[in-house]
Amino acid sequence: MPPDALYERLTVFVGLAVRTAGPGMDPVNEPMIRHWCEAMGDRNPAYRGPDAVAPPTMLQAWTMSGLSGHAGHSPVHDELFALLDGAGCTSVVATDSEQEYLRPLRPGDRITYDVVIESVSERKTTRLGTGYFLTTLMQLRVNGELAGTHRFRILKYAPVAPRSPSVPASAPPGPGPARPLRPRPVINRDNAGFWQGVAGHRLLIQRCQGCARLRFPWLPGCQGCGSPEWDTVAAGGRGTVYSFVVMHHPPFPAFAAIDSGTGPGTGPGIDNGTDDGTDDGTDDGTDDGTDDGTGAPGPYAVALIELAEGVRIVSNVIGVPYDEVRIGMPVELEFLRVDKELELPVFRAAAGPPRRPAVRAPGRPADTREGDDTREGRGPR
């Protein structure tokens, strides 16, 4: 990489404070907790009553400024952005965030927070453009005690030039530069076990060791009893479509149809997730992925799959045209090798009629929530 004088100037900002001991706009309070829980559909009793605590995921909510904005910021943030804007990095997109919960927040708590520029990446080129990843770290305190941290990362970049009119937007990918890799999942200590399971062709569900409740997606603690202790169970692989949407979007090279025949065990393709790990890879590369939505640019179906174990997962439905996906359709787990480094759990339409056929009431769109009593008593979701 050629010398990057701008990067050297940006690193001067690392460690500088954006905000020190900034006060939250409001104390932790019951009305905001109630509204949050209603919006999220979270009925956990821990968030109600005289001993209520705030949902940990509200952490950042207590620092938000509302429409009036905060006063008392240092000029560090503005100076950093002005430097990037001046270099042509005028666009910004949030990429990911991480939170740690170190102390319960309760109604009446008054928080303060500090924000620092934690890191600046070297110059990176993405499909959006070339720029720099900026990470800020917020630490929230109550009476000086650290209650949690919030790490927030953005990409400040110079957008790529518009596509040449001579290249049709619908032009299929042809010979030329290698297809860019799909975005990688953000793997952290809270979900690393899930992705390790995927690598071994197992879809792992967390099980609370306190109350045996199953949960998915992975979380640090139980939503039922609050226990941080857990183990895992492997999903059997069967489920049904609980709900779904059909995605329409412009073509992205990274999501172009998956190539076939790139070599056994190394190229993209489908592995049946019900195997016992003894797969020798000889079935890879034989599925061209063009008829089932595994790699086609779209339209394709993305569904909320209810597993036989009772939990739900968002994934692709494959093996059937997108306009034939139906709520209640039986599906079976498979693992899609996207490239040499990435596999994803997907669900193939299984033989047999839907378990909960769609019901269309006069004057209303199709809705299968009617007759939903089959979900009663299944256990935690």
UniProtKB/TrEMBL annotation:
Here the segments flagged for biased composition (Acidic residues) are 273-291
What protein is this chain from?
Answer: Predicted nucleic-acid-binding protein containing a Zn-ribbon
Q: Which Gene3D superfamilies match?
A: Hotdog Thioesterase (3.10.129.10)
ChsH2 rubredoxin-like zinc ribbon domain location: 195-230
Domain ChsH2 C-terminal OB-fold, by residue range, is 293-335
> The FAS1-like dehydratase domain covers which part of the protein?
22-145
Please give the residue ranges the record annotates as the region Disordered: 162-181, 257-297, 348-381
* UniProt feature, compositional bias: Pro residues: 170-180
Any matching Pfam family = zf-ChsH2
Q: Where, if anywhere, are coiled coils annotated?
A: none
Compositionally biased intervals (Low complexity): 348-365
**Comp. bias regions, Basic and acidic residues:** 366-381
